[in-house]
Amino acid sequence: MTRRDIMKSTAALTASGVLPAHAGLTGARSAGFFYPEEAQPHERTFMQWPVSRFVYSDGAFLTALQETIADIANTIVAFEPVVMLMAAEHIAAARRLLSERVEIWDIPTEDLWARDSGPSFVIDGKGGLAMTHFNFNGWGGKQLHRKDGMIATRVAERLGLELFDVGLVGEAGGAEFDGEGTLIAHASSWVNPNRNKGSKQEVETLLLETYGADKVIWAPGIKGADITDYHIDALARFVEPGTVLIQIGAEVDPDDPWSKAAFETYDILRNATDAKGRPLELVELPEPWDIRVKSYDFVASYVNYYVCNGAVIASEFGDRSADKEAHTILSDLYPDREIVMLDTDPVGEVGGGIHCATHEQPKV
Question: Does the active-site annotation cover 308?
Answer without folding.
Answer: no
